[in-house]
Automatic annotation (TrEMBL):
The lineage of its organism: Eukaryota, Fungi, Dikarya, Ascomycota, Pezizomycotina. Residues 58-198 form the SET domain. This is SET domain-containing protein.
């Protein structure tokens, strides 16, 4: 998928990875998998979908992790370049959308998220292609007590050539303020955006390390 005209790569984007602002579908997705990805035609106009922008958001940055003791030191992370309000949408997790016939190719990727976890299973892998979201780190061991952001399942709308697609997507949101208001400050400019990958990710990682 070529970059739209005027699209410039985000700062610190690695030259070996393809930047794409919108999802790239595997050519091997079956018709059932494609149906699962999109809302039924009859209801698609009723689905409240968030628009995927074609430009890079200016309120986040990809930065090298230099903090001593940070477990991802030497790698990169995603940081707030402005204050981000509690509960606000940060970015979609964009990548290569794949299904059952491609799953072996993505089983060892550290950038692969589960997009649909029903009878039909789909994943979105940011290892080889994606946007800034592929740089979000997990909060564990990152010198904080808890994540300040979270993954959510959403409907997303974007232009693909002449068609408008509405499909399932994963997006990163700032954590809600909470009843006690503990997270009322949202994410401050300069802070790293940290999610929880979930115990499943780290469990699988441990098994691989021990194998
Ligand atoms: C989705 S990538 C995140 C971006 C990655 N730091 C980079 O620069 O490409 C996931 C990888 O980041 C690293 N990582 C993220 N959070 C971590 C954490 N809390 N502890 C250790 N490694 C982490 C691990 O190597 C993991 O496989």
């Amino acid at each position: 998928m070529p970059l739209p005209a005027k699209q410039t790569l985000p700062r610190n984007w690695p030259s070996s990875i393809t930047y794409t602002p919108i999802p790239v579908h595997s050519p091997n997705l079956s018709s059932t998998e494609l149906r699962t990805l999109h809302p039924p035609r009859s209801t698609s106009s009723l689905v409240p979908a968030l628009k995927i922008p074609l430009h890079s958001p200016s309120y986040i940055s990809i930065l090298p992790i230099t903090t001593p003791g940070h477990p991802a030191r030497g790698q990169h992370g995603l940081f707030a370049a402005e204050d981000l309000r509690p509960g606000s949408h940060i970015i979609f997790y964009i990548g290569f959308v794949h299904g059952n016939s491609d799953k072996e190719n993505h089983s060892t990727s550290d950038y692969d998220l589960s997009l649909v976890r029903e009878a039909v299973k789909l994943g979105v892998d940011g290892e080889q292609m994606g946007n800034e979201a592929r740089f979000v780190n997990d909060y564990r061991g990152a010198l904080v007590q808890a994540p300040n952001a979270e993954f959510r399942d959403v409907w997303a709308e974007y232009a693909h050539g002449k068609e408008t697609r509405i499909e399932r997507c994963i997006a990163i949101f700032v954590r809600e303020a909470g009843k006690s208001g503990k997270w009322k400050n949202g994410i401050r400019r300069g802070e790293e955006i940290l999610v929880s990958y979930g115990k499943g990710f780290w469990g699988a990682r441990k098994e691989m390390d021990e194998a």
